[in-house]
Amino acid sequence: MNTRTVDVPTPDGAVLATDVCLPDGTRALPAVLIRTPYGRDAHRAELRGWAAHGFAAVAQDVRGRHGSPGEWHPYRGHERTDGAATVAWMRAQAWSNGEVVAVGASYAAHCALVTALATPDAAGCDGVPDAVIAAVPALGLAETAREPGGPERLWARAGWWAAHGDRRDSDPDALARALADDPRLLEHLPVARLAERLAESLGRELPSWSGLWAARGRGRLAALGSNCRLPLLAVGGTRDPFADDTVALWRAWGGPSRLLLGPWGHRLTADPAAPARARVNLGALYVRWARAALAGRLEPTRHGVIALGDSGRWHSTRVRSTPPPALPATPREGPEWRAGPAGEDRPDRPEAESRWAFGSPTGLRLLHGAEFSADPDRPVRSDDLAVPAGGDRADRCLLLSPPLPGPLDLAGAAVARINVTADAPCADWAVRLTALDPSGHADPLAFGIVRRTDPPGEAADITVPLGTLGRRLPAGTRLRAEIAGHHFPAHARNPHTGEDPVTATRLAPSRRTVNPRGSVLHLPVVARRRYVEPAPEICR
After folding, report:
1. Which residue, among 235, 268, 269, 263, has the nearest Cα to 249 in the 3D structure?
2. Quick count: other Cβ atoms within 10 Å of Cβ 308?
3. What kind and span of H or E run contains 102?
4. Sorting pLDDT into bands at 50, 70 and 90, what band is 344?
């Protein structure tokens, strides 16, 4: 096995620093390509792993980062054309058999996808890979800057831009140091000028910060993927903030597509306390899938697996493509389980769905806060699962279920449908679902947030998607639901004035009302358990 560094030329004369790791021997090889802004050096072990399994493995610094000269414009620059040029270069090498798999996680997944989706004019006949592995994909500026429902991802974007934006290298701890110096940093208004205050701690400017928030229009890559016939492996985690984008990409893809949704966050790491059976060797799975994809052995279908938390169980599933049916005028007291018709082929529906009615002693009992104040000067915090005991100034609506009589497996999309009123022209509605074990330990289960511009004072029926769940809840677990007007600092505070939260400088409290009798929680219950081993299911 040998590794060397080369400069790969691009059509406009730039060169890209590239590491090539080859197994011993002289035979022609299939290849994998990883294009990253985080430093190709971090992929040396991964390259050796691919090479040990008979692949030529290539890692490249994107233009303007680390060893590659030029200017880097995240999600906007040369990723598509540079990726296509690199694939064509790889196919021209003596060690190549012409087969290329584009691989990447997070921003590198974006690089892999735009290379796979390059048009013939940009890529030429040799510039498109043969298959794609996209893990925890950060699909674009709009997808990373805002939730699907509109609110801005403040903490994550501030952290990423402080670590990687407007610089050639990375400083992963930059935001943590800045917050240590200035604990109220993220309260700065307007959000559009937060970089000016952040620059005081970092000692450098972030001129691209304000432009981040101008990006709108989600879903471009998923839409383009609907016309792509290449095989796709979409890998995500139920604790990853981009899980919904991973599922949407897999669902829209036009070629053979597989979904692997594990009990992971954005780093694809398991809980250290999880049992060994809950762990997956992703490297070995990637190799097995790549071989099947290149050999044309994948079924021309769309299917996947979801881990049931850290239980070690995986459920074969096709995640629903449509939300649950409309809420009846007066929900039954719940939970209520509803199974699909026997013999009906509904591949995008779970086998059963449980409906937990609000205000019900057997569903979600109202503890307090049917009327509450959403005050951006005292927002409900995203980094604190503790809830107030109540009082005269409720800051959220709080509900609690009775203990589960038995274990409950969840796999699929969860949704809250709530009937609510706000006195502001623009209001955010955040729903946080927490699992409380018999000892009272709180574990985040699901979250969703949407922005609404309903007429002030008028009741509205609102749907809040809560993401894709994969969990096994033991008997005795209680579900706690919170409905609030803020989720800070994870998300920027809605000012309640009708102004854009990115440019607003004035904040005002908002009175909120939740009508329990018009609200319900939908959970995707696994009624007929179809446990599978992830690797064989993904690679068939």
Report:
1. 235
2. 24
3. strand 96-105
4. very low
Token pair belonging to 442: 């709180």
For residue 90, pLDDT over 90 is answered with yes
What local confidence, expressed as pLDDT, does residue 335 receive? 58
pLDDT tens readout for residues 248-257 = 999 999 999 9
Question: CA 264 to CA 166: how far, in whole Å?
Answer: 29
Contact between residue 186 and residue 155 where contact means Cβ atoms under 8 Å apart: yes
HSE, side-chain direction, 13 A CA sphere, residue 456 = 9
260: helix, strand or coil: strand
β-bridge mates for residue 514, sequence order: 420
Task: Tell me which amino acid residue 476 is.
Answer: G
**Both structure tokens of 441:** 């330990």
Q: Which residue has the higher pLDDT, 340 or 468?
A: 468
Burial class of residue 296 (count of CB atoms within 10 Å of its CB; 0-12, 13-18, 19+): exposed
Residue from 454, 448, 453 nearest 522 by CA: 448
- For residue 90, give the DSSP letter: H
Six token digits for residue 52: 């040990």
E strand intervals along 387-496: 397-400, 408-422, 427-436, 442-452, 460-473, 478-484
Distance CA(408)–CA(188), nearest Å, equals 43
Q: Closest Cα partner for 113 from 125, 100, 126, 129? A: 129
Residue 188 — very low, low, confident or very high, per pLDDT cuts 50/70/90? very high
Question: Is residue 44 scored above 60 in pLDDT?
Answer: yes
Cβ atoms within 10 Å, residue 184:
8
